[in-house]
Predict the structure of Flavin-containing monooxygenase.
Amino acid sequence: MAATTEHLDVAIIGAGLSGIGAAHRLLTECPGKSFALFEARDAIGGTWDLFRYPGARSDSDMFTLSYPWRPWTAPESIGDQRSILNYLQDTAEESGVTPHIRFATRMVSADFSTETSRWTLHLDTDDDDDGTTHRRTVTCSFLYACTGYYNYTEPYQPDLPGLEDFTGEVIHPQFWPAGFDYTGKRVVVVGSGATTITLVPAMADDAAHVTMLQRSPSYVVNVPRRDRFSDAARKILPAGPAHRVARARNVVYPLGFYQLCMKLPRVAKAYLRYQARGILKDEQQIRDHFTPTYNPWEQRVCAAPDRDFYRSLVSGKASVVTDRIDRFTAAGVRLASGRELAADVVVTATGLSLQSLGGANLSVDGVPVELGDSLIYRGVLVSGVPNFGYSLGYTNASWTLRSDLSARYVCRLLKHMDRNGHTVAVPVPTSGVARRPLLALSSNFMLRAVNVFPRQGSGTPWTLGANYLLDVPLVMLGKVSRQMAFNAVPGRGPAAQRKEVA
């Protein structure tokens, strides 16, 4: 007899920050739903299990990066990689999520059938016993992708002329070797983004010297590693209320800074220069290395806890060079200016490759889905793709703020479908909706991936919001059926004649 194909009410792809949160929401808000999390790697945590480079940490506060239902109890408001990973592992275990995770299981493709109103998932599972990969299928009524943005297997590596001639160690932060010893070595970190701003102070104490080699400057904002307001709240309130108070404060404060950058960029630039001047006390260095040509938050603003990045420069253990690479040599890097940087170790912090759905392919009735031709709906559903959610986080605030809203919206939608006897739900945009990139940043790694993700439209519900305070009522109280089709996919299959569009 042929084996029966397993069917789930909900399949969650990914067991990182978003997937664990989504599973918790299903358990608590839709307790009757059967579900599983399919995780391609062998461990919980996603990004926080992958990145192991020196100093790896959050670049937003942990009161908003952590989950609203489970307080962050560590003293630091900026969490290191190990602390965050432990938090996620403990949360999954205590929430009852861990037994639902299928590790070493990667979704290769998924096809939705308008005839059966089901997804068929094609999964590759690694067998630890014999090292082989087995293909199997699972069906589900709703597919929820919690895969994040990053390509975990292939980071971005630009053309670096002569890199093969360099005789020292070359490392990409995404694949940092366990136990790598750089003590007493000359290190050149190529890049100017958040990873570089983390690596430089983390390596400076042990390396002979760390040089940050950037093609162009980025903005750096100093943030406290510990939050005095939150410390005070913890002293006078129990853990739960203290966490909620700290979380509320840390929603408002970064949002205020972001709005300042958007509405008064000259004031924001002056503030960031003031911060740098207070530590570096070198106006020429600020002009040369910390004055970008763009406004703050047109690209991401890098966070430096307790001014550690600037302090490493003042100490003389690290330095910044702004120049272009001519080519690598056996002993280091020759720059366009003719200057040469000697190096024993080169760290190519040159950015990440972005991909959608962990590289899996989607189709509806066998017709491939091009996400770049679709529109995002309420920041979570995708136009023309039925019974499908895509968890996305904020780029200007903690990821979890947005991903938790998305998970709660999915639960609202599922309950609405159950109440009304719907088997299919798909967003349907009105004609003439303008299209623009999903991620409104001009960073190169974002621009390279503009066609990888759905687009934004113009106006609610076709935008990915950037203001948590405005998004909460829109997602949690907005009409679930607005510009949605139920019980059929418009234009597809014989059931299309029965479509109900609200």
User: Anything to note?
Assistant: The chain has two domains: 6-152+354-501, 163-348.
